[in-house]
What we know:
By secondary structure, this protein is mainly β. The protein has two helices and 19 strands. Strand 14 and strand 15 form a beta hairpin. It starts with a helix and ends with a strand.
Amino acid sequence: MRNLSRSIAIGVALALVVAASAFAKPEVVRVGNLVLTDDGGVFPSKLPRGRQAPVKAKLRATIATADGTHPPASREVVIDIDKHIELNARGLPACKASQLNARDTRAARRACGGAIVGRGSGQVEIAFPEQKPIPVSSPLTMFNGGVRGGKTTILVHAFITVPVPAAIVATVKINRIRRGPYGMHTVTRIPTISGGAGSVTGFKLDIDRKFAHRGKRRSYLTASCPAGRHLVKGRVKFDDGTLLKIVHPLPCTPRRG
């Protein structure tokens, strides 16, 4: 019984170690008064060493200030993604920005339901002069915007009701690259929110789309793990001129097969 209990204890300990290693630690970077926290990862984290397998991504980020004041608005997010993470939108229905503009979340999802690749939530803080900042939240929906000339487009839709109802549609452009450990280059343009008074303060997005194309089941995202980690680096530009840069290693576990 003593040996059995010891074996169980060791097994539980090993399981906890493996589980803990599957999740990347949040990365935090500060420049001046601005603080960016980046979290998330690719799941499952145990992946084939030499071939691509279906995965889903969980994206998490917050933007805040060290002194609690209203943060400046972010204008552009540029991210380079590990070459062993791939995106495949061929065969998916595509949506146009004109189908999402001026629509609330339910109407946007109804108009382009077949093009949805991810869902989540976002937070915005709106600060007008001489008024207390107003926190606003919205569902987020990611739509496939199509593939053209080797470039993939994603449309991210949000709908806020304060101070007036308005749809916000951010455009993400994705190119394949060959740049060291990186194989995907993404550029996200964030539109002006509430006439410039609104700033993104956080978001959560889950990307997990499976579909059929030419008689085969496909995954929007696939990944392999030959090196025990995936590298992601990014930079965020703000309208006050601040530039935040971050490098985030995401651990993964190679397996045979």
